[in-house]
Design brief:
- By secondary structure, this protein is of the alpha/beta class.
- It has two domains: 179 residues, Rossmann fold (3-Layer(aba) Sandwich); 120 residues, N-(1-d-carboxylethyl)-l-norvaline Dehydrogenase, domain 2.
- It has 14 helices and twelve strands.
- The strands form three sheets. Strands 5-2-1-6-7-10-11-12 form an eight-stranded mixed sheet, with helices on both faces. Strands 3-4 form a two-stranded antiparallel sheet.
- It binds nicotinamide-adenine-dinucleotide (NAD).
C-alpha cells in the first residue's frame, strides 16, 4: 500500500483517485483553487458535481496547505489546469518536496524572454528545480474512468524503471498503462491534439473529417519531431489515441464544428459555448507567437489556418 496525494479535485484529479484506491493505496485528494470542488470533496456523500457520481468513502480529502505537501507521500499526482502549474510549482518548491511527481495536466507554455516553447515537465524543472517528474497522458475521459470503463494511458519518464514503478501504483484491470521514455514527445502530442481535434471537428461530413484526420497526423508528426520528441510517439496513446477521443466528442471538436460551419470564433463562443473552456483555443493563443515567428508555415498549414482564424477572428479555411 502506497501513499498517494492527488492535487486537483476537478474531473480528472477526482477520477484518477478511483484506480488508485482500487489498487489498495491510501489516497488523499486536495483542491487549492475551486470552492465548488472543495465543497464536493469535503461533503459527507462525496458527490462530485462534474463526474456526477459519489466518490469512495475511502478517499480522504485534506485542505491544501504547505504542511500537507510536507507529509511523506510515495507519489504526488498533479491534475490542475495549465493555469495552475506555476502556482503548484512554487508551492512544491517551497515545501521542498522530494516525492515522485506525476503530471496529468496537458499543455505547453511559451516563454517570451527565451522565445521558446516548454513542456510542463520542462517548466517545473527549469523554474522550480523539481527533478523527480513523470507524466501520464492519453485518451481518458474523466467520467468514463470514474465509472471504471476500460482506459489505456501512457506514463513517461526518461528512466523507464521509474515509469514502471508508477504504473504498479496506479494500474488496475480497467486502467491499463503503457510506458515510454519519450517524455517530450508524449507531452507535445497530448497538448497539440487539442488543436487538431478542433480542426477535425471542422469537417462537416465524415469524408472531410477523415481527410483532416490524416493531415492532422502528418502535422503532429512534424511538430513532435520539431520539439525533439520521437515521431513514433504520435502513433501511440498520447497522439492518435488521444486525438481520436477528442475528435469524436468534447469541447474542442464542438468548437471546431461551429468554425467549420462558418462562424467566427468569437461568435461561436458567445452564442454556443459562453461558459466552456476550450483548451485548444487557449493553447493556440499560448504558442501562436512562437509558431508564427519561428516555424516553417508550409509544414503545418492546418495549424496556421486555425491560428489565423482564432487570433484574427476570421472564418476557418480547411481546404
Ligand atoms: N492525463 C490524463 O489522462 C488527462 C485526462 C483528461 C484531462 N487531463 C488534463 O487534466 C487537467 C484538468 O482537467 P479537468 O478535466 O480535471 O478540468 P476541471 O476543470 O474539472 O478541473 C480543473 C482543476 O484545475 C484547478 N484550477 C483551475 N484554474 C486554476 C488556477 N488558476 N490555479 C490553480 N488551480 C486551478 C481547478 O480548481 C481544478 O482542480 C487538464 O489539463 C486536462 O487536459 C488529463
Amino acid at each position: 500500500m502506497k501513499k498517494v496525494l492527488v492535487i486537483g479535485g476537478g474531473a480528472m484529479g477526482s477520477a484518477f483517485t478511483v484506480p488508485c484506491l482500487d489498487n489498495n493505496n491510501k489516497v488523499t485528494i486536495t483542491e487549492p483553487y475551486s470552492k465548488k470542488f472543495i465543497r464536493d470533496l469535503s461533503s459527507k456523500n462525496k458527490f462530485h458535481s462534474s463526474l456526477k457520481i459519489k466518490l469512495s468513502k475511502k478517499l480522504k480529502f485534506k485542505k491544501f496547505s504547505e504542511n500537507l505537501l510536507k507529509e511523506k507521500f510515495d507519489l504526488i499526482a498533479i491534475a490542475l489546469s495549465l493555469s495552475g502549474i506555476d502556482f503548484i510549482g512554487k508551492q512544491l518548491k517551497k515545501a521542498k518536496v522530494k516525492a515522485p511527481i506525476l503530471i496529468l495536466t496537458k499543455g505547453l507554455k511559451y516563454e517570451k524572454k527565451k522565445n521558446k516553447i516548454f513542456t510542463i515537465s520542462e517548466q517545473l524543472k527549469r523554474n522550480y528545480n523539481l527533478m523527480n517528474i513523470s507524466v501520464l497522458k492519453g485518451p481518458c475521459l474523466a467520467k468514463e474512468l470514474a465509472r471504471k470503463n476500460q482506459t489505456s494511458v501512457i506514463v513517461a519518464n526518461r528512466n523507464i524503471k521509474i515509469a514502471k514503478q508508477i504504473g504498479k501504483i496506479v494500474s488496475t484491470k480497467y486502467y491499463l498503462i503503457d510506458f515510454s521514455t519519450d517524455v517530450t514527445g508524449v507531452e507535445v502530442c497530448s497538448a497539440i491534439k487539442n488543436i487538431y481535434s478542433m480542426l477535425i471537428g471542422a469537417g462537416q461530413n465524415l469524408n472531410t473529417s477523415s481527410s483532416l484526420f490524416q493531415r492532422s497526423i502528418n502535422e503532429m508528426k512534424y511538430l513532435t519531431r520539431y520539439f525533439k520528441g520521437k515521431e513514433s510517439t504520435t502513433l501511440g496513446l498520447a497522439g492518435v489515441g488521444d486525438l481520436y477521443v477528442s475528435a469524436a466528442g468534447g469541447r474542442n471538436s464542438k468548437m471546431g464544428n461551429y468554425l467549420g460551419k462558418g462562424y467566427t470564433f468569437k461568435n461561436a463562443k458567445k452564442k454556443f459555448m459562453p461558459n466552456d473552456t476550450v483548451e485548444g483555443e487557449q493553447l493556440v493563443r499560448e504558442i501562436a507567437p512562437f509558431i508564427l515567428r519561428r516555424m516553417n508555415k508550409t509544414r503545418i498549414p492546418l495549424m496556421i489556418n486555425l491560428i489565423r482564424a482564432i487570433l484574427k477572428n476570421k472564418k476557418l479555411k480547411v481546404n
